[in-house]
């Protein structure tokens, strides 16, 4: 019984966060996308295109489009796998209608179109990132992507790129090349923000170190940096010799100092560095002040 309550509570909490994200997306759509004819893909992009070439208003097109895609999702994927698409599509459509007159309440008059492009990318990226963070979608072409992934095993990213690309090309034909440039910039800003919200900001770096002075480097990392280390078995592709690769995690603000100290120990050390967004488990240590490099 407690497990069921916990699942319901978790779903309701995530849905509440989803509503916030979808509302931000709907405001962005009505405040920036529709007035400026920004077509960046999805059902929202198609709604703006058809709103231009037919008597159908963008909001009505979103309603019709999402109803069609919900029915398609249930028919192909089944109700269970469609639940997040259904909830997202209904909520987003409702949010679009509720914020339909937002441009009359918030009157924007930027001197440059660049500000509209930046605001469109930022607001839509933040909204989408929040929605994806809690494992929901806004419906629309996300439904088509899910269907292609489930039934034809097509990669999600690739399928979404193709579908949105076709819509953007269609939008360019209707609105012109200037719209295409705006769409590319908006999409880039949006993708950056979605990634940052999903992954977070990297506060650590993971180092993979291949060195002939293994003992000295290990001693430095353990004693001076006070970082835990892991030894990975490696084998040189050219020399065919076995050797250990040192793996460790350091704080981002310490990374440059640690790298320089390792280069002091072994100028020929081979170091691979990558962002580390989350670290679970391991030995917990108190937060250390930035490391000072000792002059040799």
Question: How many domains make up the coordinates?
Answer: 2
Strand content: 5-15%
- Unreliable stretches, pLDDT < 50, 5 or more residues? 284-291
The oligomerization state is single chain
Radius of gyration: 25 Å
Shape: elongated
Order of strands in the sheet with most strands:
2-3-1-4
- How would you sum up the major sheet? 4 strands, antiparallel
Count of DSSP helices? 11
Report the end-to-end length measured between terminal Cα atoms. Answer: 65 Å
Number of strands: 4
Order of helices and strands: HHHHHHHHHEHEEHE
Mean pLDDT: 88
The proportion of residues forming helix, as a percent range, comes to 55-70%
**Which secondary-structure class do the elements indicate?**
alpha+beta
Concise summary:
The chain is an alpha+beta fold and 296 residues long. The protein has 11 helices and 4 strands.
How would you describe this structure to a colleague?
With 296 residues, the chain is an alpha+beta fold. The chain has 2 domains: 2-199, no CATH class; 204-276, Alpha-Beta Plaits (2-Layer Sandwich), CATH 3.30.70. The chain contains 11 helices and 4 strands, in the order αααααααααβαββαβ. The chain has helices at 2-36, 42-53, 58-77, 79-98, 102-105, 113-133, 141-152, 156-175, 177-199, 214-224, 252-265, and strands spanning 204-210, 229-235, 242-251, 270-276. Strands 2-3-1-4 form a 4-stranded antiparallel β-sheet. A hairpin with a 6-residue loop joins strand 2 and strand 3 (242-251). Helix 1 (2-36) packs antiparallel against helix 6 and helix 6 (113-133) packs parallel to helix 9 (177-199). Mean pLDDT is 88; it is low at 284-291.
